[in-house]
Design brief:
It is a single chain. The chain is 81% helix and 0% strand. The protein has four helices and no strands.
Length: 98
């Protein structure tokens, strides 16, 4: 309970961001969902760089944080590559066939 009281403003901020995100995404036309998700995956590249920098600052004997950081980097890389593959397939649908 003390943890919640200590970080109450951060908790409110995260909840507020969730509602804003739902409202913004909910008002996007269906035709723009795939390019929007591709842009979100590109932003994940910035997050990936931050994760790598944070892993470099972890002590070498702190195995828990190193493993969690490695998992975060793996999942971030998977998210980025998957997003670009989906975008590539989407763009191929609009190419004229020869």
């Amino acid at each position: 309970m003390e943890y919640i009281n200590l970080y109450m403003s951060e908790i409110y901020f995260v909840i507020f961001c969730i509602f804003i995100g739902i409202e913004v995404i909910g008002n996007v036309p269906a035709i723009l969902h795939t390019p929007l998700m591709s842009g979100a995956n590109a932003i994940s590249g910035v997050i990936l760089v931050g994760a790598v920098i944070m892993i470099m600052k972890v002590e070498p004997d702190d195995y828990v944080n190193l493993i969690l950081g490695g998992i975060a980097v793996f999942l971030g890389t998977l998210n980025i590559s998957g997003g670009f593959f989906v975008t590539g397939r989407m763009l191929k649908m609009f190419n004229s066939k020869k």
